[in-house]
Amino acid sequence: MHVCLCKSAHFVCSYDIYSTLTMWPEEVRQDLRAALTAKHQGFLDTSIRYYLRALQVAQTLPLDAWGKEPYLRITGISIALAEAQEEKELPAQAYETYKGALEMLEKAEARLSGEERLRGVALALKLGELAETYSQPEAEEERWLTLGVNWVLKIASSQGQSQVQAKEKAAGAPSVDVADLNLPGWITVSDVSAPLHALGAFYSRTGKLEYAMPLYLHAISALIPPTAQRKQIPTENMCKGAELMSSLSELIIREKTTAERLHQAEAWAKQSVAILDKPENADAPICAQSLGVAFFNLASVLEMKSELVEAQQLFKKSLLQSKKLNHKEGISEATLALRRLDRVQRASTRPKVTPDA
Q1: SS3 (DSSP) at 134
Q2: Which of 15, 118, 248, 261 sees the fewest Cβ atoms within 10 Å?
Q3: Rounded Cα distance, 34 and 195, in Å
Q4: Looking at residue 253, what DSSP letter applies?
Q5: Contacts of residue 249, Cβ cutoff 8 Å, sequence gap at least 6
Q6: CB under 8 Å to 241, separation ≥6 — which residues?
Q7: Among 99, 86, 73, CA closest to 4
Q8: pTM of the predicted model as reported, rounded to 2 decimal places
Q9: How far apart (Å, rounded) are the C-alpha atoms in residues 341 and 336?
């Protein structure tokens, strides 16, 4: 799951700094202006130098110099610096910059507004992503992603339950039903589901399936509340939820393939396909990207149940969808699955040779 910071409403990117420059403390304006100009002209080394100087000055200023929600602006400079460092291909430096911004928020957690804490959630997701990309220890990645889940649940539940944390089922499931949360207007269900999904994906990747599945269930519940009218749920949320349903289907049967688990996996996989395979969702990128995988996962379940004709039809649909999107991995996987089924079916129709009496 890629975290694109400039597309998040809870980040301050270069354009945002430029457009609001007069609102920043006078002590950092000149350096920020120089950093932005240098970056625009392609001089990343110069831009990084000015951002660093602006950040150093920012950290010496009293909080009341920043106005309302000071940590949004201070960490905004850190984020702009880290983005420049990433663009310059300095991942270790960018990681430390993001880490420093989040640690600043951790130290001030008791004083943070909801939106400042949500900035911390997004930073935690970014650090989790970078920890995976650059092969940091698993414990480091887990630390950031767990922090993101804890904080987002505190935010989301703050109107009714002030002390809710993401208690883990021996490490995993939140103790609060996210579908029942009354979210304030500045936080979306995607803000809530993204950390749950990211931590669930981490546990899935590291083989801790008993922790991954509850997190996926909570993320699905946030995106597609059981009591909500489907027509009132945004298409993107429906498709994100359906994508998670398909992933959950695969998790259920990854270690055990009992009849009960196959039944559960089939139910989730069918629900995923039913949501994604609708004409009105065809133009939504996330729906189109998820549909081929959903076809494939349902086909795999049916193959395990020896329902080979239905499985073959779905593998063909997966192949067509992957070709439509030029998804090479999807094309390869579906092609191999169809060849495998073809061999099985040919073997089953081959006449049995009996020895002469």
Answers
A1: coil
A2: 15
A3: 35
A4: T
A5: 265, 266, 268, 269, 272, 297, 298, 301
A6: 193, 219, 220, 223, 224, 275
A7: 86
A8: 0.81
A9: 9
Residues of the chain with pLDDT under 50: 7, 9-10, 12, 15, 159-172, 357
152 near 131, Cβ under 8 Å? no
Count the residues in the chain.
357
Q: How far is CA 52 from CA 24, 42, 92, in A?
A: 16, 17, 15
Instruction: Report the C-alpha gap between 257 and 235 in whole angstroms.
Output: 32
pLDDT attached to residue 9 = 44
**CA distance linking residue 110 with residue 210, whole number of Å:** 32
| Residue whose C-alpha is closest to residue 26's, from 49, 47, 54 | 54
pLDDT digits (tens, 9 = 90+) for 9-64: 445 455 456 556 777 889 999 999 999 999 999 999 999 999 999 999 999 999 98
Question: HSE-up of 168 (CA within 13 Å, CB side)?
Answer: 17
- The DSSP 8-state label assigned to residue 21 in this structure reads G
Q: What is the DSSP string of 301-317?
A: HHHHTT-HHHHHHHHHH
- Structural domains in the chain plus CATH codes: 1-136 (1.25.40)
For residue 346 the two structure tokens come to 């040919």
Q: Environment class of residue 209 by beta-carbon count within 10 Å: exposed (0-12), middle (13-18) or buried (19+)?
A: middle
Euclidean distance between CA atoms 194 and 152, whole angstroms: 10
Token match 């310059």: residue? 88
pLDDT of residue 173: 52
